[in-house]
Structure formats: C-alpha cells, structure tokens
Amino acid sequence: MNTIVTINAFHDNFIYLYQYDLNKAIAIDTGDSTPVLKVLEERGLNLTAILVTHHHRDHIGGVPELKKKTGCKIIGSDKQRINGIDCIIENGQVLTFGDFKINVIATPGHTRTGICYYIPQNHEGGILFTGDTLFIGGCGRLFECDAKTMWNSLQKLAALPANTKVYCGHDYTLENYEFALKTEPNNPVIKQRLSEIRQAIQQGKLTVPSTIAQEKATNLFMRAETSEIFAELRKQKDRF
Fold this sequence. Notes:
Elements: E1 3-9, E2 13-20, E3 24-28, H1 33-43, E4 46-51, H2 57-60, H3 63-70, E5 73-76, E6 87-88, E7 94-97, E8 100-106, E9 115-119, E10 127-131, E11 134-135, E12 138-139, H4 147-158, E13 165-168, H5 173-183, H6 188-202, E14 210-211, H7 212-218, H8 220-223, H9 227-238
Parallel strand pairs: 3-4, 4-5, 5-6, 10-13
Antiparallel strand pairs: 1-2, 2-3, 7-8, 8-9, 9-10, 11-12, 13-14
C-alpha cells in the first residue's frame, strides 16, 4: 500500500512524501531540503520527482538541493518563477508514476499559476494535495487573482468525491475554525469541529488530512454559495 509521510517545516508548513513501489517517493512542495533528506535516508527511499503547487519560497526553497542530491525531476506549471523545472504541466494533464496516476488541476487564486494534484479514488478514497489553495477550514489569500477566480477553483475541488483526503500546505486549522465560529457562533457543526481540532492539537496529532465532505460541511469558504459571499468572507478573514 502506498504511504504518505507528512513532514513539518518552518513554523507551519507541511511537506509531503508519497511512497510507492516499495522504495520510491514523490515529494510535494519541498520548502526545505533538510527534513526531506533526513526522511529519505531513514526510510531508504529514492526521490523520483517533486511536485510543485506554486512558486512561493516556502514551497520551493529546498528544490535545488534535492534535485542536486537525488537527481529527481521537478514538475510544476510556472517555468518563469520556479527554477529547474523539468516538466511543465497544465490543467487536465495526467502524470503516471508506477501503478498510479495523478491528475493535474489548475486552481488559480492564491497565485495565477497554482496547481492541485489529485490521485484518483481507490478503495480507500482519493488523495488531494492542495498547496495554498484549500486549507483545512480555510483557503489561501488572494495575492494574484480576484475572489471569483479563487471561488471557481474551490468549486472544482468541491466536485471531487466526498471521501477524497485533503492534504494542504500549511497548518492554519485552529485559526481557521476560530474564525468560522466567530462568523457563525451558533453553528453546532463548527463548534464540534473546533473542539476536535483543539483536542487533536493537545494530543500532538496532525490536523491533516481532512476530506472533501468535511470541508464542504465546515469550511466557510467551500460553503460560500456565490463568489460575492466568498469575497466578503475572505476580506473578513484577512482582518481576523
């Protein structure tokens, strides 16, 4: 069975290794090379590729060193702003690694060239790496696009199977649900979700993954029925 290893980096970043074919792995958003190299050595893994969701430094800072030391391929959508890309990808493209495939989903909003990576459903459900597009209980800031663009990208993700597991680029989960409860103080589902998150953090557990179903039920940004509602929520969150 393929395995996902979650690596903490910096203050709140998540880097992921997806292990396949026994001793191979792909990495997602390697902002820092040091912890990735450590895990690769500990587990005896060969890094074959790095998938990049967007060009921000905290997601690509470790790419040059990892490419130098492992010879892995760099895959992403923004050749101008991500050095060393070997494979330029675009929406709808399908990548093949071993016996599984990864669907490329363009999700502009946080950046113009943002990408999410979706491994289609099997008996355990699909897997979605969202970078800074969709967070657990939240979404990314609008640095390069307008609210409607981001809202449309979230609608794409909302259309994926309900049991798809969501792995995001940062751990903003507690803050996101504190904002959600402030916005909807009488919502029992959000109250319960915030309680679960607080308990998980107290126990030293990770806040990833979530699921598409869970995000559609508790994430205010995924639940926004129009881009106008989404835009107002995003403004409020920026001031929170």
